[in-house]
Amino acid sequence: MDRMSTEDRPPAPRSLAEALRGRDDVSLGRLLRSRPDLITPVPTDLTQLATRAGTRASVVRALERLDRFALQTAEALAVAADPATYDELLGLMAGDDADPAVVAALPHALDTLREQALVWGDDDRLRLVRTARELLAPSPQHPSPTGLGPTVQEATAGMSPGRIQEIVVAAGLPSTHDSVSAVTALTGLFTHRRRMAALLAGAPADSLEVLERLVWGPPYGQVTPDPAPRLRWLLDRGLLLPTAPGTVVLPREVALHLRRGLAHRTPEPVPPVVEAAAVHRPQVVDSTAAGQAYTALATVEELLKDWDEGGPAVLRAGGLSVRDLKRTAVALDTSEPVAAFWVELAYAAGLIASDGEADERYAATPEYDEWRELPAAERWSRLATAWLAATRTAGLVGGRDAKDRTLSALGQGLDRSAAPEVRHRVLGLLAGLPEGAAPDAGSVLARLRWERPLRGDRREDDLRGRLAEWTLSEAELLGVTGRGALSAHGRALLGAPAAPSGPGEEPSGPGDKLPVHHHRPAPPRARLSPAEQAVASAAAVRLLTPLLPEPLDHVLLQADLTAVAPGPLEKHLADMLGVLADVESKGGATVYRFTPGSVRRALDAGQAASDLHAFLAAHSRTPVPQPLAYLIDDVARRHGQLRVGAASAYVRCDDDAVLSEILADKRAAALGLRRLAPTVLAAQADPAGLLEGLRAMGFAPAAESAEGDVLITRALAHRTPPRTAPEPVPDGPPVPDDTLLAAALRAIRAGDLASTTPRKPGTAPSADGELPRTGSAETLATMQAAVLTGEALWIGYVNAEGTASQRVIAPIRVEGGFVTAYDHTADEVRTYPLHRITGVAELADDVG
């Protein structure tokens, strides 16, 4: 990129506000998109925008979003002169050897800093905004990432004039009449390559070793009151300068000479390449991911089925207990961290929530029933979309918060606002790999750290790195990736462009590493709008649908009271079979076992024996085995023979011999039974306990209502009230859309016009105020005159809420206590009450 010649440049800006005033709307729009905190609320003019862009909180946020090379450029400007020239900055970044990669990358990095309003000024007067310089410049309390120390001028600020003259003379320079010229001469020596080389050529070898230890930082060292000769030689010549008793520092100019001009030991102008650890056939990747997607759906359904009638209790502080998470992991046949991921995913998708009852428990939401009715690919899309946008981070479960409390699944403290951006960025890097290529995880983390480098103490808590690792594993669990590579439906879900062509080699094993092609498509946008996400999700559904197995409408009944489902079953078949039988094993095929308890469960749900026989005959590809038919008939014959109701509870039976058998059984003692009539027993136990006790004794009682009807126990009985999915925690102010951005730019430009338009002499605002002040008679007369002449005026205006503003208007009509005018500030015709206008001023004659 060629730098603009001096003749082509507009006049140099004198402040950041002037630099912003010289930008067009496209450039200002890019600034406001990249730093949305600057328009929350919308600034009144460009001066206020510049002031806000220089506040500490906003600058820190902007610095944290720079890539490593742009941040290194800002750090170099912080140790350069203020202002600095482009050539001086280039010398700090590329060094004496003028690294070609740095030379090529620096213009873009500098343009990024300018666009972010962190740097302003032309190439011959580059200025880092003051707050950024304060944050990045070296100081004893906050060392610079460059490892440089203070300048000679800064380090000698408190030194006696006599000592400064001694140093100047020892360095081979003539003495001066004052300290300022002496420091200038010493600085000139240290920054002169040839003269500095000659000075160091006469240094003892052990003195040079001291300099080598300090040159890349930290630049501070400790000395005794009587320094060794090697240190004394350096101190006498100012190559080390005292900063405090017992502490010396290597001046910045000396370090830069020893570094051959480099501000950083290792400039990183080019992002690390994401490498492919293995390459698979795209068909294998897609089919593997589709299998994982189906498993994800089955796992979530199993979780919700386990919580159908009321799940675990909600802890007082919120969330699941450690014991309940362990039970959930056992039920899902997985580890606790993975179980936490499925629980949090279902919660993020709005499928589970707390029921809000006095004895609060987790349960499925009504949304879950609607979700189950959707086709499989659409159900997966709902889960994957919720995962992409969620700020709740399951990987934190089991860790500790700032108050050393354990973080629990579904509890507080799991939101991390950076999670969605990291997920999109990691998957975007995968989208840049050749089709079917699985990334090397280390190279992905290295790339992310280049894009968002860690600063200061945060190196000990690499949250983005952990989020990236969790993203890679969660994407595989969810079926967004297969064998580590991004699937076709995962790519569509991101709204990513088509994958680049593969490298042409044969599929490699896990140990092979292939470099990524440099001609990669642009990564997908970090966030899609709701409309764009809907289109992307529909595309993902279309790609995934043919890869998912078709649900079966049959099972294979076995003579050992089992049924084998050779694949996924249709919903109504799976639901009914889940009631009639118990799942014995899972895998490629699911094995169900029929037991007296499972058959009784189906009868309790309102099924008759004939219904069960007909169901099995209709859905079995093999004849119904005789043992199974006998089991159904035997349980059905005894089912409901006993009736349990509320007295506290009672048992009634038409066969008094059965009741006598119960009374004689020692196991019935705990139920507190006594005979009220030949066919009725009263119990001290409640109806539920009585039912369980009789079933434990081998009977098959049925519950009945107060009217004597058999109560039918149906599945899916417990649901929460309607609940909305948890809202993601925003990572700062939202990026403005086009409509908001256009309106904000119009308001800022209009406010700036009102605040900067020249006025006629003698009509400036009052000394304290920001609005003109004139009497009502003068205001009215000036307005009427402007209507006749067509001139524009500058007014102060206070609206009904008491908010004051200044505007440039061209009056059209004045009548009835109102002025109708074209408002240049709002770019439209408006009517203002005259009593709300604080004053009016004429604009200068040369203002059009």
UniProtKB/TrEMBL annotation:
GO MF: helicase activity
Alphabetical list of Pfam families matching this protein: Helicase_C_3, WYL
Biased composition (Low complexity): 494-511
Domain WYL: 778-840
Keyword Cell membrane on entry: no
Domain Helicase XPB/Ssl2 N-terminal: 555-677
Protein name (database record): Helicase-associated domain-containing protein
Organism of origin: Streptomyces venetus
Lineage: Bacteria, Bacillati, Actinomycetota, Actinomycetes, Kitasatosporales
